[in-house]
Amino acid sequence: MSYRDARRLFSRGKPWQELIATVRGRTQSKSGTTLYLEAQDTTGNDRIFTMDFNDGGPRPKPKPGDKLDFALLEDGATRAAASVKGENRLHLVSLSVPNDFQLRAIGL
């Protein structure tokens, strides 16, 4: 996420949303950390989504089965700011919904 995108995200005045999600998987690469999370959507159905961190991600690193309690400020597309409970820093993240191939690759 660029500096301009981050400024635009914070200037919109949207409310933060609080979520509790279950960690289903985690991958690590040179470009950052990807968490595969499962949470209920607005209709009450469980959905899996990915949260890509440009930095190292939350500390301590969550493991599959852990609950992740966080607040999210999103732009309505794929960019967001995430504040993980218990941390005193803000993460700029990208959100997406994985396809079937990606889910099979991590065993979900």
Would you count the extended β strands for me?
6
* CATH level-3 fold name: OB fold (Dihydrolipoamide Acetyltransferase, E2P)
**Poorly predicted segments:** none
**Element order: H for helix, E for strand:** HEEEEEEH
Helix content: 10-25%
Secondary structure tally, helices: 2
Regarding quaternary structure, what we see is: single chain
CATH top level is Mainly Beta
In short:
This protein is mainly β and 108 residues long. It has helices spanning 3-11, 100-105; strands spanning 17-29, 32-40, 46-53, 67-74, 79-84, 91-96. Strands 1-2-3-6-5-4 form a 6-stranded antiparallel barrel.
List the helices and strands and how they pair.
Layout: H1 3-11, E1 17-29, E2 32-40, E3 46-53, E4 67-74, E5 79-84, E6 91-96, H2 100-105
Antiparallel strand pairs: 1-2, 1-4, 2-3, 3-6, 4-5, 5-6
Q: Could you characterize what this model shows?
A:
The protein has one domain (3-105): Beta Barrel (OB fold (Dihydrolipoamide Acetyltransferase, E2P)). It is built from two helices and six strands; from the N terminus they run αββββββα. With 108 residues, it is mainly β. Strands 1-2-3-6-5-4 form a six-stranded antiparallel barrel. The mean pLDDT is 87. Strand 2 (32-40) and strand 3 form a beta hairpin.
